[in-house]
Design goal:
This protein is mainly beta and 231 residues long. The chain has strands at residues 7-10, 16-20, 23-28, 31-36, 43-46, 52-56, 61-65, 71-76, 83-87, 90-95, 100-105, 111-116, 121-126, 132-136, 141-146, 151-157, 162-168, 171-176, 181-186, 193-199, 204-209, 216-220, 226-229. A hairpin with a 5-residue loop joins strand 1 and strand 2.
Length: 231
């Protein structure tokens, strides 16, 4: 890769897509496709149909790329998008600079609703119910937003400074940086319920979960190690 990857997601076919600097890389086995961005990206999300949304903080944009890497739309957020998630035809854009979550229509590009997301939002993803899940690292909380309209439904405390999150096979995985752990939550009930907890490499700042197998991969920033966990 040209520089260290800022974000990476698993693809349904077993490959992965990452943003490294101003390059989006798609890796399937030994084949690598590279798509160029106008500026460095910070986060990305892939729709099941194949298109990709990439957050570009320096320009304040979220760029939509087709399955072949062509730019199909640019969403001007007016801020510094640092996280992005996709739920159906909705795109959730997280802006850590003002700790907000804003929803856009992926088809029309129209801005829908926006809400404050705690006091220190750092990451966002979606679950099987189509909700946007946000980690507020400053307050140590998991925030659950429903859509149509955007409403904050749950605030759940996560001790030990939560940071990154990933959802797969009914479980939300959250890294806890102060405790060097990753915690699994079942979100099917009215309140998140802890179902797993594993020790990790030091300072776990990124996590991904394989949608096919449920395998969890955690990256630690102290030793530069990557850890695989089979639930």
């Amino acid at each position: 890769m040209p520089v260290a990857a800022q974000a990476m997601v698993a693809l349904p076919d077993g490959g992965f897509r990452a943003v490294a600097g101003s390059t989006v890389l798609t890796v399937r086995g030994t084949a690598v496709d590279r798509w160029e961005l106008p500026a460095p990206g910070a986060a990305l999300a892939v729709h099941p149909s194949g298109w990709t949304a990439v957050a570009v903080p320096s320009t304040g944009d979220v760029i939509i790329l087709s399955a072949t890497g062509a730019v199909t739309r640019t969403l001007h957020s007016g801020g510094k998008p640092g996280g992005v998630a996709v739920s159906g035809d909705l795109i959730g854009i997280l802006d850590p600079s003002d700790t907000s979550l804003t929803v856009y229509d992926a088809v029309s590009g129209a801005r829908r609703e926006g809400l404050r997301a705690g006091d220190g939002a750092v990451s966002v993803t979606t679950d099987a119910a189509g909700r946007f899940l946000v980690i507020d690292a400053r307050d140590g909380e998991l925030l659950v937003f429903e859509t149509g309209p955007l409403i904050l439904r749950q605030r759940f405390p996560v001790a030990g400074t939560p940071f990154a999150l990933a959802f797969a096979r009914g479980t939300l995985w959250v890294t806890v940086t102060e405790r060097n752990e990753v915690v699994g939550y079942d979100l099917s009930g009215g309140t998140p319920r802890e179902v797993a907890r594993h020790p990790t490499v030091r300072l776990p700042i990124a996590v991904a979960a394989d949608p096919a197998t449920g395998t969890v991969v955690v990256a630690g920033s102290v030793e530069g190690l990557v850890q695989r966990i089979t639930p």
